[in-house]
Amino acid sequence: MIAASGLQSAATRIAYIDAFATARGNAFTATADNPSAIFYNGAGLTQIEGTQIHGNLFTVSLNYSSKSNSAKDYLDDKWQAVPSLFVSHHIANSPLTVGFGVYSPFGLGAKWSSGADIVLDPRVPYEADLVYSKYHVVVAWKATNELSLSSGLSYDYTDIQVKSNALEYEGNDNTLGFSIAALWQPSPQHSFGLNYQAKTEVSYDGTSTIVNIGKYKSKSDLTYPESIIFGYSYRPNQKWNIELNVDWTNWDRVDDLVIEGLPSVLGAAPSYELKWNSSFIWELGATHYLKDGWIISAGYTFIENSVPEKTLLPIVPDSDRHAFSIGFGRDHGQMYWQVTCQYIYGIDRKIGNNVYESVNGDYELDSYGAAFSVGYQF
For residue 203, what are the domain limits? Predict the structure, then answer.
């Protein structure tokens, strides 16, 4: 199982997986030419010859703070890691390529300092851990010389922990998901990609611990939203690849998190009002191919916030954000590697009418990320 404790996209979605794609501002849907295409655009697998194995490690440190009238509080900024692994195999003398990937499309690890105002408020969660691991099988079909299509099926495992100073809840569940994708390359200069990841619905079975009262079997339902990504890649010559992506996530699926199964003497089941909004991620990237297999890439991403001011919880550091990245790597033939650095600046956000008064304040985010990938072709 992969432990996902990263937060780099709108709300809790992890959009950054592959180091090469990350260096390009995640604009990779219309390129998708390594096995991480299983995540970015499964149809891209038809571009890969033989058998390839491809591993990634994305790490991030969140510098998130809240300033209220009483004090300035900080989120734990320890480095968190999101690993992934992909394998692809082209079936000889066939238009089919198959792939398998293990990665985390959602994840959250957040813990506020012990002196934060929200820690003292028993209604507000100050610590959360979300693990969401996807085991994804994809079959890609080269329908024509210009058009490739793919479909995939995944087994998803997830567990969640949420903690306030009055209530601790943890639960887990598993479910199935699917994906479909297309890659159209009408000419060597132009490529278009489309990737759809379906929503999944989970029912967490677990335990709630009420401080100084006891433990109870509990459950909660949550929907993880679908996403649609469209990409266009322009390649004026063999030395350049410039791509623009538009990435939409249907966060309207996320309404309230209600914890059921607690004793009736406590009144209504505890719930966290979420009511998130659908949002876009805009991704622009460029790669320059140098001599002797060397490559250098740079990218920019704009990430729209998804969490309304009224229902923002500090365990989800959400705001409009600008992401900048740069990376380099080398293709040695059978083996290749990539190293990437990233900086994300969150536009300062002032919260003044939250349902919890202790959450009101000024929020700032500076995030630093690094990624590494290596691949080998058999």
Answer: 19-377
